[in-house]
Amino acid sequence: MSVGARDITLGPVDLDMLPEYPLDRTARLLGSYFLKFETQRWLNSEMCLSCDREIGFIYLNLIFIAQHQVPIGTLPAQEELLAQLARCSLAEWRRFLRRDPNPLHRWQHCRCDGGEVRLMHPVVLEMVEDQLCRRAAREMSNASAAARQRLKRLRERMLAVGMPKQAADDDVLVERMDAWLAEHHRGRRDQAAYDRVFEVAARERWFALSRGGAMP
User: Fold this and answer.
1) Dihedral sign (CA 118, 119, 122, 126)
2) Helix-strand-coil percent breakdown of the chain, rounded to 5?
3) How far apart are CA 50 and CA 42, in angstroms?
4) Is the model's pLDDT at 90 over the cut of 80?
5) Contact (Cβ atoms closer than 8 angstroms) between residue 170 and residue 193
6) Could you count the other beta carbons within 10 Å of the beta carbon of residue 75?
7) Cβ-proximal residues to 108 (8 Å cutoff; 6+ apart), any chain
């Protein structure tokens, strides 16, 4: 199957031969997350050392613009849209493409989710995936820290109402009560919420675990 969109080569694109872009349209870098750009890598690259200032300016701008495209890290394949992003006329854009190197150095066609044909760059994709992984790791770390604080407060409340330390140290019991609170009290956990889960734990005989007994 071919697509007649005008792009890098101004020729048809064979969809069956295109690589699949690994990120879908929902992937985003929002808030304090940004595309990590390795300046040393750029300054020592063949592109930086061989391109003129005009081409280098456009090339870098397109990399930065790709961070805000959908899917993230891609560019449109149509030359009219690329010219708009490069802030030049279509005639100027075509002249830029005839230079060596040109503003689309190492950009290549890819197939995105939904079948849309766009442009991807291996280094840009690498940077985006790295930042997405870093964000996921940070969010996981934050979630783990929040969970530790929740359990710490729950243990403190157990001791404050006179429960034995053995019960407060029972990870299975504490995590079961924490899970109950997460399901039934999704807002701020006040004393009434703690009192309620303690009542449920007593009624359901969850404290048997703290005494080494079996769950009924």
Assistant:
1) negative
2) 55, 5, 40
3) 12
4) yes
5) no
6) 21
7) 8, 19, 119, 120, 121
Nearest alpha carbon to residue 107 among 19, 187, 44:
19
Q: Please give the average per-residue pLDDT across 7-29, as a whole number.
A: 73
Using an 8 Å Cβ cutoff, are 76 and 82 in contact? Answer: yes
Whether residue 122 is preceded by a cis peptide bond, meaning omega within 30 degrees of 0, is no
Q: For residue 181, what are its two tokens?
A: 């609170």
Beta bridge partners of 110: 118
Place of tokens 């300054």: 43
For 185, the token pair is 């009290």
Q: What is the mean pLDDT of the chain?
A: 84
Sequence-separated (6 or more) residues with CB below 8 Å from residue 82? 7, 62, 75, 76, 93, 104
Residue-wise pLDDT for 138-188, tens only, equals: 778 878 888 889 899 999 999 999 999 999 999 989 989 999 998 888 788
| Gap between the Cα atoms of 95 and 85, Å rounded | 15
| Domain definitions of the chain by residue range | 2-120, 148-209
- Contact 71/65 with Cβ under 8 angstroms? no
Q: Are 118 and 7 in contact (CB under 8 A)?
A: no
For 76, the enclosing helix (H) or strand (E) is strand 74-76
Sheet with strand 74-76: strands edge to edge: 74-76, 117-120, 108-111
Whether 92 contacts 84, CB under 8 Å: no
Instruction: Please tell me the pTM assigned to this model.
Output: 0.61
Tokens of 147: 């969970």
Report the run of H or E that residue 40 belongs to, with start and end: helix 39-43
Looking up tokens 């690498």, which residue turns up?
126
